[in-house]
Amino acid sequence: MSRIQQRFEKLAGQGRTALIPYITAGDPHPDLTVGLMHTLVEAGADILELGVPFSDPMADGPVIQKATERALVHGVSLRDCLGMVREFRERDAETPVVLMGYLNPVEVMGYTAFAAEAAAAGVDGVLTVDMPPEESEDLVAALKGKGLDPIYLLAPTSDAGRIERICNLASGFVYYVSIKGVTGAAHFDLEPVRAKLAEIRSHTRLPVGVGFGIKDAETAGAVASVADAVVVGSAIVSRIATLADDPVALTGELRAFVASLRAAMDKERLE
User: Fold this and answer.
1) Known catalytic residues?
2) Cα 172-69-175 angle, rounded to 5 deg
3) Domains in the chain: how many in total?
């Protein structure tokens, strides 16, 4: 059983929803990433999503695009990201870590080598945004061969056939993109999300996480009432951008913000 599955089963037994914060590896500086990962866990994160910097992050909005640019200024590579996970594991052997990124760096490394190195570093799941399920057989085989969970995105426009195909390939959890657009985009409406989650759950018993557009504790609490996980990215990364030059203030701000998300989610689920 993977660390991701174990974590979801534990939370389900507690009647709680997973909180999955996202940060970009190397933003605002490579020396800070591992410390920020620990801060997120201490503040209430259940699973960490670590973004792999890439020069053309097509699914990401301007906030995370700029984070990627800041990381790439420092030359942060996929191997550097694996090194950060390896360092994180020196203190935390339990919190699942999902790498989120794009296919090109994985292709350059090679599927087999990447899967082996990611597993050795302590990665638990991999989300490659631009890898369509129809072409992912070899990558999925490499990942599952090393005990890694392939994570896939589903969208408001995903029809029943595509939901079925993706759910058959995925493990760990599936990630529902709650809006039509890029990360950090506009208005959040819970009712269409509730309806789509019901449709997705008719095809799978995997936990379903919801992300894109969750900006504050109120929204996180609302999503926690219908989802198995709440994924928060741009709202965290924007705080990193604002306080990039003050690591102490940045750590305090992230700790307070993530704790507010956790409190709102628990209040919604446990009341």
Assistant:
1) 49, 60
2) 20
3) 1
